[in-house]
TrEMBL record:
Family listed: Belongs to the leucine-binding protein family.
Domain Leucine-binding protein as annotated: residue spans: 33-377
Entries under InterPro entries matching the protein: BCAA_transport, Leu-bd, Peripla_BP_I
Segment forming the signal sequence: 1-19
Originating organism: Sphaerochaeta pleomorpha (strain ATCC BAA-1885 / DSM 22778 / Grapes)
Keyword GTP-binding among UniProt keywords: no
Annotated keywords: Signal
Source superkingdom: Bacteria
Protein name: ABC-type branched-chain amino acid transport system, periplasmic component
Coiled coil: none
Length: 387
């Protein structure tokens, strides 16, 4: 009988220890906050989207935790591929909401950002765009912010550059149905004509077009001195190569999307002399955060089998992430509405400069970098400010 009693006591003590251990494990389980990554990793803008994602992943590696009410929370990234498509963007946005994301980063591509905007607002989850430059992304949406400059500014910068270089006639090529392309082309046109320049040809093409010789032939007949062609990474080398094959010697220019090494690889020698505007130059770090980022991100690019050239959108992706952390800490909450309210007052020293938001949720930036393709590389030319 005594042996039976002892055995029962041992079993009861073991069970007690097991349940106590389980309870303790539950109590000490690491807390976490989810940040959604809303980016194209496939489709027409998959290359640029992936570069932006790398910046966010690296930021998460550098800053893996955030403090909320004195407690440390692990930051977990949940990624959703919007596939460079407006319909898929809605599905991707909904999946991130379902994942419990407190704040969402992205997207590369203004069209998909605009398409998902109402979903974020309706669910009161703030989004922070990295490189989506079309004004409509944040207009009328209290839950969308962004860390980049806007297309009216970028279009003006490139128009000023063309005019200052002595170009009196310009042609414009834009993609139908693409908010970024059509918007930036329009802003360039307005700024250029206001300076006194003449737009001698405006050509538009459908998505998935691969043969541009017809519209380029029309442009050649108009004899412009510059061609402004804001378009996707996929179409850029086709436009560049086919223009040179037709004997067009005009300077070819574009916006930030063209700062991608794959364009040089695919266009080859035809890419020489192409000029573009962008957000960041790794050779001239503007802040202490930028210097630290450059030192650590280059090896990270190598780890991910990428060229050792820091894409501007990677820097913006990094900045979007650290802005999100700052807002979470300021809000002392994982609730979307509280984070959104905190975003209106954050100030962050980012890789691409100091970041504060205006009433529209746009970063107050007034400087762009102009680069040219020279000897198969993007070479810094100058910085341009517009007041």
């Amino acid at each position: 009988m005594k042996k039976l009693t002892v055995c029962l006591l041992i079993v009861l003590l073991s069970c007690s220890a097991l349940f106590a251990g389980g309870s303790e494990e539950k109590q000490t389980k690491e807390k976490e906050v989810v940040i959604g990554v809303f980016e194209p990793q496939t489709g027409e803008n998959g290359g640029g989207g992936y570069q932006e994602v790398l910046g966010m992943r690296y930021a998460n590696k550098v800053y893996p935790t955030v403090t909320i009410n004195g407690e440390t929370y692990k930051v977990r990234l949940v990624e959703a591929d919007n596939k460079s498509d407006k319909t898929e963007a809605v599905t991707a946005a909904q999946s991130l909401i379902s994942s419990g994301a407190s704040v969402i980063l992205g997207s590369y591509g203004s069209g998909v950002s605009i398409a998902a905007g109402d979903i974020f607002a309706d669910n009161m989850v703030p989004a922070i765009g990295a490189s989506c430059t079309n004004p409509q992304v944040t207009q009328g949406n209290d839950y969308y912010f962004r860390v980049c400059f806007l297309d009216p500014f970028q279009g003006t910068v490139m128009a000023n550059y063309a005019w200052q270089e002595g170009a009196k006639k310009a042609a414009i090529i834009t993609q139908l149905g693409d908010d970024y392309s059509s918007g930036l082309g329009n802003f360039f046109s307005k700024a250029y004509t206001a300076l006194g320049g003449q737009v001698v040809s405006e050509q538009r093409f459908q998505t998935n077009t691969t043969d541009f010789k017809s519209i380029l032939t029309n442009i050649k007949a108009a004899d412009p001195e510059v061609i402004f062609a804001p378009s996707s990474i996929a179409t850029a080398p086709l436009i560049i190569k086919q223009a040179r094959e037709l004997g067009i010697t005009a300077k070819i220019m574009a916006g930030d999307t063209w700062e991608n090494s794959s364009i040089i690889e695919n266009a080859g020698a035809s890419a020489e002399g192409v000029v573009l505007s962008t957000f960041f130059d790794g050779a001239d770090p503007a802040t202490a955060e930028a210097a630290s980022f450059i030192k650590g991100f280059v090896p990270y690019l190598v780890e991910n089998k990428q060229p050792e050239i820091i894409p501007a959108v990677s820097a913006l992706g990094y900045d979007a992430y650290i802005v999100a952390l700052k807002a979470i800490e300021k809000a002392n909450s994982t609730e979307g509405k509280a984070i959104r309210d905190a975003l209106t007052g954050v100030k962050v020293e980012g890789v691409t400069g100091d970041i504060v938001f205006d009433a529209n949720g746009d970063a107050a930036k007034n400087m762009a970098f102009i680069k040219v393709v020279e000897n198969g590389q993007f070479k810094f030319l100058k910085t341009v400010s517009v007041k």
